[in-house]
Amino acid sequence: MDNTVEQAKKNVENIKKFVTPFFNLAVSTTVYGYHNIQPTGKLILTCNHRSDMDPFVMGSVFPRFISWIAAEYTTRIPLFKDLVEKTGTIPMAIDGNISMASIKKVQQVFKNGDVLGIFPEGHDYMVKNDFSAGLAHFHTGFAAFSLRNKVDVLPSVIIPEEETISDYPIPPLVRAFMGMPKEVCDIKRRVVYKKVNVVFGEVINHKDYISLPLAEGMEALSTETKRRMSELQKVDYLKK
């Protein structure tokens, strides 16, 4: 494992030690399905994405280091670029033209036996701005990473119990100046969590899809992941 990764892990650990106590005061979090988290080995963590707080919610409760996939344009947000570089986050183009550098970083995550964190909805749910809607369309990139690198998928969801919906704090013109896509510039409202449930489901074995042609396997794995995450969102699950 190279020094960059080791330093990123130390940085994240230090940030968590300092920030998590304050974050927990702001957001009350209850975790279900904790036993489904594999303690070691390469893994893809998928989660729904209805708030820009989601990576911080997951990071506060997940016991392992996560290398998050983030939209490349987020590196143009003030202070975020430094955070990306220091925490092992992997910027990735949202137009499907994934750079070889990004692919190599993803492969390095798996080579190290670490966790890759992905929001399969991308920013689509937040762009839609309907916070009572179900999961948005899933992008299948995570499934490609799973099948090409022989990595299992851990589905998870964040379920709000108390939250506020407020105006987006950065004006559209400022977002445009920072180079954000038009659909992101047009987002009007954002979610601020107060109390949430985080639910981890059973791991989805990549071997169940590896024998299929790649495109078919990606679609099948993506569909199953979305189905599992939709099930996890149901209140009845929390009563088990």
**What letter string, H or E per element, gives the SSE order?**
HEEHEHEHEHHEHHEHH
Helix percent reads 40-55%
Strand order of the largest sheet: 1-7-6-2-5-3-4
- Can you tell me the residue ranges where pLDDT is under 50 for at least 5 consecutive residues? none
Secondary-structure class? alpha/beta
> Approximately how much beta-strand content do the residues carry?
15-25%
Distance between the termini: 40 Å
Rounded mean pLDDT is: 92
Morphology: globular
Number of strands: 7
Rg over alpha carbons: 17 Å
Q: Determine the number of helices (DSSP H or I, runs of at least 4 residues).
A: 10
Task: Please characterize this protein's 3D structure.
The protein has ten helices and seven strands. The relative contact order is 0.19. Helix 3 (80-87) links the parallel strand 3 (66-71) and strand 4 (90-92). It has 240 residues and is α/β, with parallel strands linked by helices.
